[in-house]
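pls design
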C-alpha cells in the first residue's frame, strides 16, 4: 500500500461504506448504544456482520463465556431493533502469543470476507472490545491488513500515566499484532479522550424514556447499572463505544478532532513504545460531546 493510499484510508470515508463491528456486547451498556447507532446510520454505514468478542471480568466465568453472553446480547438487541444482520461467535480465549491465531467463526469470516475488498475499496472494521478476533483474522490471512481499515477503542491517551485499559490489557498480544500489522489504524483512546462522552440520568430520562422499546431498554439498563455503584450521587455514564462508530460519520470533523502520528506500540508492562519512523495512524484526541450526543439521541428515538 502506498503512503498516499494509507493516508486516504486514514481519512473519514466519503460516501457509503461497508462495516463489520466486533463487540463484547454483554460487558457494558455502551456496546448496545454503539450497535444501535451503527444500524440506525444507514445513510452512510452498511453493516455486513457483527462479531462477538471475548471478555473476562466479574460477569463472565471465562473469556469464552463472555463471548457467548455477548453473542446472545447481540441477538437480543437485533430483535429490539427489528434488524437482520449476520452474527458470528468469536474467540473463546485470548491470544497465547503474537504468532498463533485463535480460530473462530468471526476470525474465519473476516479472513474470507476481505477477499472482496482492496486498499482502494476497504472494509471498515470497528472494534470495541478486546481485539482478539481481528488479530486472529490478520494471522489467518495477511490480506486483512491490506483490505481493511481498523477503528479501535482501546488503551488510554498518550499523555495518560499508563495504557491499562480493559480492551487493551485483556489481550495485549492481539493489540500488538494489529497495531504492528500495517493495517490502516484509527485509534480512539479511552481515558483522556473518549471519557468525555458521558450521559447523565436527567438526559437519559429526557431523551429516551417512553420513546420506543429500544429507547426504554437502553435507558433502563443504563440507569440500573449506574445506580449499582453511584446511587445518591450526581453520576454520569460514559458510553465509550459509540465514538468508534461515530468516527465513520465524522465528516468535516463534526464529532471529533484527530491527527496523524506514528503508530505507538503497546508493551506488556502497560505503556507505549513510540517509534518516529513507524507507519502512521489516525489518533483521535478530542470528542465534541454535545454534537455527537445530539446525533446519537435523534437516531435512537427516530
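designed seq:
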Amino acid at each position: 500500500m502506498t503512503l498516499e493510499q494509507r493516508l486516504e484510508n486514514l481519512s473519514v470515508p466519503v460516501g457509503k461504506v461497508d462495516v463489520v463491528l466486533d463487540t463484547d456486547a454483554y460487558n457494558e451498556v455502551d456496546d448496545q448504544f454503539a450497535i444501535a447507532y451503527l444500524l440506525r446510520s444507514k445513510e452512510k454505514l452498511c453493516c455486513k456482520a457483527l462479531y462477538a468478542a471475548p471478555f473476562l471480568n466479574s460477569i463472565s466465568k471465562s473469556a469464552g463465556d463472555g463471548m457467548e453472553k455477548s453473542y446472545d446480547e447481540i441477538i437480543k438487541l437485533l430483535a429490539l431493533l427489528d434488524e437482520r444482520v449476520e452474527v458470528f461467535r468469536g474467540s473463546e480465549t485470548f491470544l497465547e502469543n503474537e504468532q498463533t491465531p485463535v480460530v473462530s467463526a468471526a476470525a474465519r469470516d473476516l479472513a474470507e470476507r476481505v477477499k472482496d475488498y482492496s486498499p482502494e475499496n476497504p472494509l471498515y472494521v470497528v472494534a470495541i472490545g478486546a481485539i482478539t478476533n481481528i488479530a486472529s483474522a490478520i494471522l489467518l490471512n495477511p490480506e486483512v491488513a491490506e483490505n481493511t481499515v481498523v477503528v479501535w477503542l482501546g488503551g488510554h491517551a498518550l499523555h495518560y500515566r499508563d495504557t491499562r485499559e480493559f480492551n487493551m490489557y485483556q489481550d495485549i498480544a492481539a493489540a500488538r499484532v494489529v497495531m504492528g500489522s500495517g493495517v490502516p489504524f484509527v485509534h480512539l483512546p479511552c481515558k483522556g479522550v473518549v471519557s468525555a462522552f458521558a450521559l447523565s440520568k436527567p438526559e437519559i430520562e429526557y431523551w429516551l424514556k417512553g420513546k420506543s422499546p429500544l429507547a426504554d431498554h437502553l435507558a433502563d439498563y443504563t440507569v440500573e447499572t449506574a445506580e449499582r455503584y453511584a446511587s445518591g450521587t450526581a453520576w454520569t455514564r460514559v458510553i465509550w463505544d459509540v465514538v468508534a462508530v461515530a468516527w465513520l460519520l465524522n465528516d468535516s470533523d463534526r464529532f471529533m478532532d484527530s491527527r496523524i502520528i506514528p503508530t505507538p506500540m503497546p508493551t506488556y508492562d502497560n505503556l507505549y513504545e513510540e517509534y518516529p519512523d513507524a507507519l502512521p495512524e489516525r489518533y483521535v484526541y478530542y470528542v465534541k460531546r454535545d454534537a455527537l450526543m445530539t446525533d446519537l439521541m435523534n437516531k435512537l428515538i427516530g
